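sorry to bug you again but im stuck and you know this stuff better than me. what follows is a protein written twice so to speak, once as letters and once as structure tokens for the fold. id like you to explain what the token line says about the fold, in plain words if possible. anything you notice is useful, everything is just below.
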Amino acid sequence: MEGTALTAPNSPHPKSALGHKVPAEHARSWLLVPASKPELFDRARDSRADVVILDAEDAVDPRKKDEARADVIAWLQQGNRGWVRINDVTSDFWEDDIEQLRGIESLEGVVLAKAEAPEQVTETFHRLGGTTRVVPLIESALGLEDATGIGRAVGAFRLAFGSGDFRRDTGMWASREAMAYARSRLTVASIAAGLPGPIDGPTTDDSLRVLREQAEWTLEHGMTGKLCLRREQTAVVNEVICPQNSDILWARDFIEDFEADGGVVRDGSDMPRLGRAKKILGLAEAFGIEVG
């Protein structure tokens, strides 16, 4: 137990504060909602998702981009807070996305589709006014090869994995083994760039059992968030990518024992374990978890 920062659930889940706002740097479930379906926006906002992303890219027919963007802007201007997945820099829609979203106070950030170079992130960030957070979505072999540079780009907030388009680009299977390198690479790139853990791609299978298994793959590879396609997926993702009761109790006990010994290092394992314990308790606080 002492060597594990997060573990897959195998016991009753800790109680989380209902309606607790999770900071985006720790957000686990990132719910994608088609921007062309405004009737779903409020339901997504009221879901268990840590973050709501209104998807103005692949989820919208090219002929309906303007209408969908207008619906997104209207919803945000009503005071609703959320993220928007915007079209990639090379598309015909990116500039309009940027120009019309700039200055909207309730826009929490953008997910930049098909990011393949650091300058795409930086230009997006500056064009949005230099304060809006950008999550580059890595969806190709080229993007993965420059993941560290993209993560270090001015404006980059967290990296995300567009696993479906990545498989289309590379011809790889969706299996755990085939995707292991890409997931691990994004985690290493994120840490090297000084970013929070990356956000994994979505599970397309309707089975919540399959979702749980794949969310454990996410966790196994050091990723700390996961894209979701349906509201019911968010609770499972939040449960898996989260410190468990045993994690939190171990962290409390270790810190109490360490402090009882005067905070003096006793052997070479103390400092790594202290770091893990503090991380676990920090996440528990970020997620509003209460353990009796």
Q: What stands out?
A: The beta strands are 15-16, 29-34, 51-55, 82-86, 107-112, 133-138, 160-161, 199-200, 225-228, 289-290. Residues 1-5, 10-18 have pLDDT under 50 and may be disordered. Residues 172 and 178 are 6 Å apart (CA to CA).
